[in-house]
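tmp note - MFS transporter
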Amino acid sequence: MTATTTHPSPTAVARPSRVLAVMCAGMFLVLLDVTIVNVALPSIRNGFDASTPLLQWVVDGYVVAIAGLLLAGGTIGDRIGHRRVLLTGFGIFGAASLICALAPAIGVLIAGRIVQGVGGALLLPSTMAVIVDVYPDRTAQAKAIGTWAAISSLALPAGPLLGGLLVGWLGWRPVFWLNVPLTALAIAAALLVVPDRPGRRHGDRLDIAGLAGFVVGLGGLVFTVISVGHHANIAIIAISATLTCAALTVAVLSARHAPHPVLPLDLLRRRDFRAPNEVALIMNLVFNGLLFVITRYLQEMQHYSPLAAGASVLPMAVPLVVLAPFSGRLTAQRGPRPALVLGCLLAITGSTLLTQLHTHSEIGWLLAGLTLLGCGAGFTTTAAVAAVVRATPPDRSGLATGVSNTSRQIGTASGVAIFGALAGTPNTPHFANALPFLAIGAALLWTAALLISFVAVDHNQRP
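out:
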């Protein structure tokens, strides 16, 4: 089927479950690479004699590229068809993984991670847009989103575990080699099962100025936070902050005047669209910020092996897998607010338990806290995505899911930058003393998400 073929009904897909499986695999790969490097950071540091700020950029270079380009990826998919964008994203992601695996220096590794993020930015919005397309029924769609959320969310805690296995046995480079054959298989599967449908929005010109301003502004913001946290030269911080403000100003001005802005201000002004994205941003900020700090805490303060450190955060995985589909069913029956509220309450409790972490704390506090955080994220993830989808016209599904995923990745990048900067370097008194305060901050952020869910998420947003 070519781009000139008449757009078929979504019911033309005989086995949408196969399409869902490929979309889940693509999402899983991209999100796996957010966290799989966490347990590899000490080995990367030793191999390249890298500083803590550079190690933060191994994580954030990838995430910032995803967050900065996701909106463009969604818009391009809406214009030319999500299958094309999906395949291109897989190809870039696989090639960049090869660059990372062969990197001779930390700078090359960070550059490879940025290119990986470009591929991920094309993949992420297309996975959700394709699912929405092949599951037009709202009830079936909510359940499919629940499955997608369960599989993709598993990547967050599975990353440290799988990374621990690979790093403990083979070193850090196989963490990236793993992506190469998996990406090739995903491309073959997508060619076979994903329907080739034309784009729905023709003639939209990409907002280059807004896109450039957003990417530079987001990268500058993360750079500034990391620089402040590690006491960089004040002149560097001032220049970075100034450029960040200027770039974000360009992005906002372009969004107001461009015919088809990369930042959809009309959607962002709507409370029913904005609120679940705010909750998702907070969730990822706390989740990934704590994960970055805790994996280093376990390896560099508690002297866990990479595998043991990865296994210690595994309790987040089981509740994510079990509860995300249940959240999908709850959302299908009662709307997103009940699942969001329940998820926030569980996460507040888990964050509170993590205030007991210190140099010689019992592992039970960590396991209990992470389990409850996983339960909270399991309920919250599916409900937030479903709320965004329901608040969006079908012909803008790619852009909307791009905004949704962008908010998550901004949260991830901000979490690694902020929590990493506040925690400082492991094996110092400051790092140990910062852990309880970071947990308190996490509980306060989840409380803000709870208030947003109560006040701003429409309780009448039903199937």
